[in-house]
Structure formats: structure tokens, C-alpha cells
Fold this sequence. Notes:
The complex is a heterodimer of chains A (343) and B (625).
Chain A: H1 27-39, E1 48-52, E2 67-70, H2 76-86, E3 91-97, H3 98-104, H4 106-114, E4 119-125, E5 128-129, E6 135-136, H5 160-166, E7 171-176, H6 180-192, E8 197-202, H7 214-217, H8 222-225, E9 226-228, E10 236-237, E11 243-248, E12 251-256, H9 277-283, E13 297-304, H10 310-325, H11 330-335, E14 340-342
Helix pairs in contact in A: 1-6, 3-4, 5-9
Chain B: E1 13-16, E2 19-27, H1 32-45, E3 49-55, E4 70-78, E5 89-94, H2 97-103, E6 107-116, H3 122-127, E7 144-148, H4 150-157, H5 165-169, H6 172-183, H7 189-198, H8 203-222, E8 228-231, E9 240-246, H9 247-262, E10 266-270, H10 277-284, E11 292-295, H11 299-311, E12 315-320, H12 322-338, E13 342-348, H13 365-370, E14 379-381, H14 388-403, E15 406-412, H15 413-417, E16 419-423, E17 443-445, E18 448-450, E19 475-477, H16 492-508, E20 524-531, H17 535-547, E21 552-557, E22 559-561, H18 567-572, E23 574-581, H19 586-595, E24 600-603, H20 612-624
Parallel strand pairs in B: 1-8, 2-5, 5-6, 6-7, 10-11, 10-12, 12-13, 13-15, 14-15, 20-21, 20-23, 23-24
Antiparallel strand pairs in B: 2-4, 3-4, 9-16, 14-22, 17-18
Helix pairs in contact in B: 1-6, 1-7, 4-8, 6-8, 7-8, 9-10, 9-14, 11-12, 17-20
The structure holds iron/sulfur cluster.
Residues 21-22, 25, 27, 56, 126, 130-131, 205-208 of chain A line the site of iron/sulfur cluster.
Amino acid sequence: MTTKSLPLTPKDLASDQEVRWCPGCGDYSILAQMKKALASLDFPREKMVFISGIGCSSRFPYYMNTYGFHTIHGRAPTFATGLKMMRPDLQVWVITGDGDGLSIGGNHLLHAMRRNTDLKIVLFNNEIYGLTKGQYSPTSRIGTRSKSTPTGSIEGPLRPLSIAIASEATFVARTTDVDITHLVTVLQRAAHHKGSAFVEIYQNCVVFNDGVFEYATNKSVKNDNLCYLEHGRPLKFGKDRNKGIRLHGLTPEVVNLGSGISDDDLLIHDEKAEDPTLAFMLSRMVRVPGDEMSFPEVMGVLRAVDHPVHHELVQQQIDEQIKKRGPGDLQALLTGDETWTVT
Amino acid sequence: MTTTLDVPKKEVAVEERDSVTIRLAGDSGDGMQLAGTQLTHTSALLGNDISTFPDFPAEIRAPAGTLAGVSGFQIHFSSSEIHTPGDCLNTLVVMNPAALKTNLKDLELGGILIVDKDSFGTSDLRKAGYKTNPLEDGSLSGYRLFQVPITSLNREAVAELKLSPREADRCKNFFALGLIYWLYERSLEPTLRYIKTKFSKNPSVLEANTRALKAGYNYGETTEAMVVHYRVGKAKLAPGTYRKITGNEAIALGLVAAAHATGLPLLYAGYPITPASDILHQLAEYKRFGIKTLQAEDEIAAIGAAIGASFGGVLGVTGTSGPGICLKSEAIGLAVMTELPLVIIDVQRGGPSTGLPTKTEQADLLQAMYGRNGECPVAVLAPATPGDCFAMTLEAVRLATQYMTPVFLLSDGYLANGAEPWAIPQVDQLPDLHIEHPKEHNAEVDGQPVFHPYKRDAKLARPWVAPGTPGLEHRIGGIEKQDVTGNISYEPANHEYMVRTRAQKIANIANDIPELQVNGPESGELLIVGWGGTHGSLLTATQRLQRKGYSVSHAQFRYLNPMPKNTGDVLKRFKKVLVCELNGGQLRLLLRGHYLVDALGYSKVQGKPFLVSEIEEKAEEILRS
Lengths: 343, 625
Ligand code: SF4
């Protein structure tokens, strides 16, 4: 059969399956923006693969008219790793959630990123278990009241971006489900990155955790709470772009611009920095409600560096061995070094 | 003997032996496994039939001199066909009192006992729990005891090289080996060649080991105590060219051959675990063959990567031992549901839990059959000998790819590390397992071409489409599928239909495998039944019983799910059926359940293979009753 001619339209990427998320769920927007982002790539859809684990977000592959594999809870990166090793020609996306990726599947997420496997990992963070009907997750904030924490969660949350950076992911970014243009741009950049790309999306679960990202999505307040990163530009935020991040020794601090503090005093974002320290620092910034001088939460690309990619290194070793010792001779291998003959 | 040795000759008698069983035993740091492997290799090259049983502790270096730290290597070499490493030792070499204490019971009365007398000091004796010195208290009077000062003679032999005593002592395994070579008329050449290649980067170690080996040999040549050589002639194996092979080696070679036979790239993904790791190690060396390996972050990731590879249209293989299978269960279920080919190698060890990591057992049969949630059938195969691991690996790949199913290959610690002669297969005679992935749609809906991922062929296998194929984009997953379309379906009748269809697909494999073979008459008083790695002991016991005039036959299952089509008929042709297995009776349960036969059982769960005599005695007891 013939390939669908390029360029694709978002519609070409829609499967015939009825989408079954709750009405109003943030996942709808992510699906729509994903199709837009991929249609813009000039890449054939038969070479795209979506692999997911278990959870609301993990139904995603069924809705894409690409190859797809809905696997088991937490393990999507493992299937993706084997696939990408053996089929480097494919563009492999991993769709996961905060429970799937950071709780049951934490180990696999770490190692997929550590190997710099060329995967585009998209973690839908809604800070709750949706599909199992509302238990707190490893990203839920302290005090989160859920079915399994009726008196409030007492456990501190993981920060997905910190985990990604600590795990040596070579592309690390964050966006939100409703910031359509930004979401498309981030997904496109992840698609173009060679190596392990990790994208956290703040995703609203209307049923079990509605409004948990209100501060980051409500247009009237979000600019006070978010800092959009731009490579080579100072870290500024606020509705009037009147605040910035400055380094005080090794510690970041929020400053008001003016009265002797200018853009020149601010930290300049460098997504290409080899040293992940500053990126890690950015990943640690958490908004404190009600605090005038609270840190913003960063959006955009924290880190984008070029490192050798896992499947290429695998192939390189094979090529080197063949160059050094010649291609394998199966008969010689079966025969081995020492034999004897019975007549 | 091509090595010239500059020593005076003494009068030596030569005695012919049909077969000999030797065990080398010492501390786990004493290099007994290496010495045993060399003895095996040399004996194989000499043309003997061989069978070996390496037996070592799980600890890499348990406290020196203790009973827990004893490592042994048993080899049976013969001028006639043999199938087991031997029940009873003719010769035992012990490097310390602990090795004596743990191994003496297996030495025949009147057998040759060679001890390193230098290592029988007071503290050595105490560590082994001896109150008096067995070399002096007369307790060894039933054996032909040779007290050889191995440690000091070996140090002397390498003295010129100015090694530290520790380094010098590391060669004493080769001294002992040299002595055995003298005693059993073996050539030093293969081991000298080995030493040369192995230590080519380390001239002083190369020289030390060479000298140690020769010194041991020369000691035999000169000592007045030893006046007899034993000669074991070439075995009359079927004509052909042979090499020595262990089960783990044969699996690794089988996988490379399977990649060749299918024309598909292969990914082997594993996580370090005894006794399966050597398969990973070996395949990691085969990069020139295009083989890719992944040491995954855990057992789950290893099977995940293998399934991911299969989804990608290439061969995905994972290997582990029982504890790893526990972790892989959920993913195996996914491969059953998504009907993807997958080979799962389980090199069984003693269980449950961590159990006996370095010891053999066959207790994962029911786990392989049923150890998953839901109705989740897979094909299960079990190689019978180390060399058979090659053939059964190819079979596993054949069934996995042609029936779109996970296939278990149940090896065990005994097969994995045991060695035997192997008739080298010719590449042009390997089975043709060539795979073509579908490129075209397989249905039409409203006049439009569509692809249905669960539309089956006559065997009930679904099409294996490789991603990247235009127009056949589709999604699969672990949720129940609608038949044909593969769409998610929670419909009750469809679920039952799919459960039955998946089971029928596995059952259909019975049409495509060899019948159960009976060794001996097709009917009679007693059928001795086993599966997998116990083949050698059961066959040998059966042959001995037949020679004694009993009406006994033997059948070994290599295909456990499905079982061969003639299984029920075979079982019913014997008055009694005795199922012998290294577990609590798992195959017996299956046979009784499937075929309503009143099968008797003989179980051994000691982390050790069956002795031939154990089977013989049990069978005789039944036959006489
Ligand atoms: S439960 Fe929450 S996350 Fe899941 S589909 Fe419904 S709204 Fe979306």
C-alpha cells in the first residue's frame, strides 16, 4: 500500500476510534496539538509510533492514526527502548502520566533517559490517579485530599523535571495543556531533538483534580506565576514583566526590576549549557501561593544538549567490530575453535 | 604426546578403562571450574564422549577453607556413549580438608584420592570441622590415597618467576590438572594452547601456569607412588565433526542461527542473573553478526525491550531464571494478548525466592504454564541435553514467529553449565524460518482497503506487520480485543471467544511438532517419563534396567505445551508410568490432569541432578511390587 502523501494534515493523524476521555479533560487539547505538531514535521505517519503505559493519558495511542502500542503500567519506556534499538528509522513517542511514569514506572523512565535513548517522552501531569478514580499521585502536593488520602497527603511530591535532569535527559521542557501555541512549539522541538526528550505537560483532570493548575492556566494570573524560558534571554516574568530571577551566589532569588536592578543583573537562560546545574535549579522553582516574591514555575525548554544517542552507539559498536574482524561467519561460529572428527 | 618433557622415565603399567568419573574440588578461589573445563576440553578433543557437572557455591568467595566455599567440577569421560556426568567418582582430587569432607561420600571404595597435603594444617582442619587429621587417623584407608604436596611443589615450580606466594598459588589448579593428565594419559597441548591465548598479555602468568601444568605432569612421571596410567579410548560416536558445548553456549549459538534462518535482526535483552547471565555475555560478543544486546535496568525492562523489538518486526528474546520470570509475568500476558512472537529463556535454578542460585531444579514448569493472570496460554519447550539447547532454541523461534506467541524455553542450571560433545550443524542445513511481513491490506470496509490486525490465518496466527509499513497503521494493546478488527472490546461473548481462540492457537502447535519418542519397546510394564534436562539420567537408568531384563521404556518430553499428539496413547500402552522430575511432581500433575493416567512420581529437590542409581532403584522397587 502507498504512503499518505506529505504534508499531512492533523486529520490524517486521527484514527477512527471514538475518543473516550471525560468531557473537558486536558487530554483533548494535548491530542489536538500533537496532531498539529506532527503534521508540521514532514514525516510519514507510518514511521511514527506511540507507546503508552496505563492510565487516562495512556489511551492516547488509540486515537492517533500511526502505529501504536498500549502496554502495561509504567513500562512503556522499556518497549520503546527495544523498538528504537531495533528500528532506528521510527520516531518513537512515549505517552505516560505522573502515576505511570513516576510511581510504578519510575525506574524505566530514569534509565531510558540515562541511556539517551532517542524517545520523545511526554508526561501528562495531573497530580492524581484518574483512571482508578482519584487517588493521590507521586506529584500530588502535600495536603492533597483524595480517596486514599481523605485527611490530606503527607508525602512530598516528586518534581518531574528534576528527575529528568538528574537522569541525564538531553532535552527537558514543560508546557501546559491549554497554552496551545506553546504546547505545539514544545512538541515540535521534542520531535526534532535527537536523544531522550522529556516533556512535562500540566494537564487538568476535570473530574478528580480540577483547577490544580489554575494559577498556571488562568490568563489573568498565569504570567505572574510562570516564567517562559527563552534561550539567551534574561529570566523575566510577571504580568508587566517587571520581575526577574537573579543569582545570589549559588542561590536564585526573585527581584523586582527597576530601582537599580536591570536585565543585565538577571540570569540568562542557556538551554545548551553542558552543566545541568542551572537547569536543575530552574526545575526546583515552585510557586508559593500568596507569597508576593514567590518563584515562578518555568515553562519552555530547560535543557537541550547534543549527546551521543543510544541506538547510534549500539550500531557504531557493531560497525567497528565488523570493520576490525570482518562480518560474522555463522559456520565458523558454530564450529568454534577446537573440534575433533569421528570417522 | 607431542610435548617433550625432560624427565627420567619409570616403569608404568597401562590399564584400559571404559569410562572414568573424576571430580576436582577445592575452595571457590582455587580455580577448580577452570581446571575442570580444561580437562573436559582435552578429553573431548581426545575423542571421548563427555558429560560434566560443575557445582559451585553462590558466593563468589565464601570464607576460604570452609565447607560453604567448596567448589567442584565433575567430569565423566568415556570410550562409549554416555548421557550423565556419572553417579560415583573413580577419582577425587581435593585441594583442602573442606573439599575432602564435602566430597568424599561420592568416591567409590578403592577409588583414587589425591589430596594437597600442604593444606591439611591445624587451622585448615578446624575450618572444615575435622577433630583429627583424616590423612593420619586411618579414616581414608578404604581409598587409594595419594598425599601430594601440591602447594609447595607448585611454588617450587614457579619459584624462578618471583611471583608472590598468592600469585604462585593461583597456578596450583594447573599443577593438579597436570597430574591428572599424566594419570589419564591426556595431552597437555590443548591446555598449553589455552594458557598461551588466555594470558598472552601477561607473560609471567602465562609462564607460571605453563610450568605448573608441566610440573604436575612431571610429578606423575617421576613419583614412585603412581605406577599405573589409565587409558580411556575414543568413543564410537556417530561419524561427524564434533565440538564441546554447554547448554548456555548452545542457546546463544541457537539464537544467532535463528536470526540467520529467519532473516531477521535479533535483540537479546536480559538482566544479570545466575545461571542465565552467560547467554547475555556470549551474545554481547556477537556484534559482528548484527546481534544487539541490552542489559536492561531490571527484568521487566528486559522483557519489555524484547517485546518492543518484536512489535518492531524483529526477533525479541529475553533470558533469565525463575525469580526473573516472576517479574516478567505481566509482560508475558501482554505478549499473549497482543499475540506477538517472543522467546523467553528460563534457566531454572533452585527456588522458591532466591533459593539456590547456582543449583539446578525443574520447578518452574507450572510457573511457565500458568504463572500469569487470566487464561494466558503460551508454548513451553524444554531441551533435553546441552547440545539440544541449540535445536530447541531454533524451535522456540520457529513456533514464536509462526504462531505469533510467546514461547518458553525451560533450560536449567545443569544443562546451562554441563558440557557434552556436539555434532556441529551445517549452516545450509538449518531450517528455513524465513519471515515476510505483510505489506498489503487484508480486508475491505465499504469498498475501502483496511487492515485488520486480528484477522487470522489457518493456524489462527494474526499477521505480523512491521511499523513503517504504509497504509497498515494500527494499534494494539493489553485490553481485550474484538476478533478480526482488534478494536477494544468489553463484549462478554467476544471475550470468551478470544480466550478460546488464544488457547486453540497454542493447541494447534501440536500438529506441528514431533511425536513423543519412546526409547525401548512401545509398550510394557513401566514407562519412565521425564522432561528437559533429566534426559541423560533417565535414559541411562532405563538402558541398565533393560539390560537386566526388565520391561521398561523411557520417554522424555521436550514439548510441554502443547504436548505431542500421541502422548495419551503412549502413556496408556504401559502398565505403570513413573514421572521423574527435579520438583515436587509438576509434570505428573499435568499428565494426570490431562490424560487421567494414574502416574506415579519420583521427585528429587536437592539442587542436584538425578543419579542413575536413584532412578534405577525406584524403578526396580515399582517393578518388583
Ligand atoms: S479522569 Fe481526569 S484525566 Fe482521566 S479522562 Fe477524566 S478528566 Fe481526564
